[in-house]
Amino acid sequence: MKTDVLKLDAAKAGSIDLSDEIFGLEPRADLLQRVVRWQLAKRQAGTHHTKRRGERSYSTKKIYRQKGTGGARHGDRGVVQFRGGGTTKGPLTRSHAHDLPKKVRALGLKHALSAKAVAGELTIIEDAMLESGKTKDLAAALKKHGWNRALVIDGAEVNAGFARAAQNIDGVDVLPSQGANVYDILRRDQLVLTKAGVAALEERLK
Prior knowledge:
The protein is of the alpha/beta class. It has a domain of 134 residues: Ribosomal Protein L4, Chain: A (3-Layer(aba) Sandwich), CATH 3.40.1370. Strand 4, helix 5 and strand 5 form a beta-alpha-beta unit. The longest helix has 17 residues. The protein is elongated.
């Protein structure tokens, strides 16, 4: 699969052959959903917690005699029926993470890359270098390409000037190839890969 390579200033810089096994698949929504769900569940804090009856600070003394009151029979004040009592079957602190096979994760990343290629939302650039590190310079380059919400994936390392310039632009994310993931790829309108990023992803997913 051959596609054009552009420079950061939108000028053409040749072409590149993309692997059909990574960028030419028919996207499967079920795989993408599984991987995104796995990612979001893993990052969920799970710090919600309700106090059970044994965690309340009330006295455990029997609040009134068993018989003769004309009311229900109760033990201590910390039961569910009373205000301030314990909670039954409420949420507890736990991890929401679940397992997902490595092969499914890798296949999900391939399908995410293919989905962007099929939708025409994939752009290959020669490199992501911006020595000035100025936001206005990067914003001008993005405007030339027509990118509003974009994810830029570079090689093993991201250029410091480019990353610094992108920090102040809303809707633009920059990741090294090792940080490429399905959720971040799908949540942006445009996927931008450098030639080094393409090589690293193909090496990672081969």
